[in-house]
Specification:
By secondary structure, this protein is an alpha+beta fold. It has helices at 3-26, 64-79, 100-111, 116-125, 127-130, 137-146, 151-158, 161-176, 198-214, 221-224; strands spanning 46-48, 53-59, 84-90, 184-187, 190-192. It contains 10 helices and 5 strands. Helix 2 links the parallel strand 2 (53-59) and strand 3.
Length: 229
């Protein structure tokens, strides 16, 4: 092979390699930006329980998957009483669930009479009863009456700006966190990507409890020994 041919081949290899590198750079997938973790909870977020494990759910009351996860979450809170704190954020997916917004408003209106969790539970437990209604307002007012709420105040609060603004803030935070479905859970500030069946949620919590226990300093023998008499 002549010297000129070798040079030509070398140049060709460099050019092809450069083109391949440019192609890969241009077509490199853009990584999804990390969500703003400061938006996971707010001072107005509703909490239940007092445990060290922080479990946050972004949920939609009309979402069937959320309805299926609800009894699992309830059982988790019972089985890990004192070890888990549950927080709930509204994430009504109104394009899929037309009654999701109003049901979230019902929960927040009940919260203004200190009955958020009671209405939260009622909405999930009766999800199939109101999901297909063209207007579930009267049904929600009936729930408020059953829960012992002042129904006149509930009806006023149901469509109030205060309630709508709370839900709008939750939605804005869900967007900032790059969430795209419900239910979405966070554990101790990290988004959970596992299933929402009971066993998966239980295993996640047990793993976190185990990790916390392994980082707890073991008292030295001298520290735990009884003082000399």
């Amino acid at each position: 092979m002549s010297r000129e041919a070798k040079i030509l081949i070398a140049i060709l290899v460099v050019v092809v390699g450069g083109l391949i590198g440019l192609f890969l750079l241009v077509n490199k997938p853009t990584p999804t930006p990390a969500g703003d973790k400061t938006k996971i909870t707010r001072s107005t977020t509703h909490h239940e329980g007092s445990g060290s494990i922080q479990m946050v759910e972004f949920g939609d009351y009309q979402c069937p998957a959320c309805g299926a996860a609800y009894p699992n979450v309830k059982q988790i809170m019972k089985d890990f009483d004192g070890k888990v704190t549950l927080s709930f954020r509204n994430f009504p997916l109104t394009q899929l669930h037309p009654n999701a917004q109003l049901s979230a408003q019902a929960a927040e209106a009940a919260a203004l009479q200190n009955k958020f969790w009671e209405m939260h539970d009622k909405l999930y437990e009766t999800q199939k009863d109101w999901s297909d209604l063209s207007d579930p307002t009267d049904t929600f007012v009936g729930y408020a009456k059953d829960l012992g709420l002042n129904t006149d105040k509930f009806k006023t609060d149901l469509t109030s700006d205060a309630v709508k603004n709370t839900i709008a803030q939750d939605l804005a935070d869900a967007t900032a966190l790059n969430l795209n479905g419900t239910p979405t859970f966070f554990f101790n500030g990290t988004q959970y990507t596992g299933n929402s069946d009971y066993a998966s949620l239980r295993d996640q919590i047990q793993s976190l409890l185990g990790a916390a226990a392994s980082t707890t300093p073991t008292p030295s023998p001298s520290a735990s020994a009884s003082p000399a008499q």
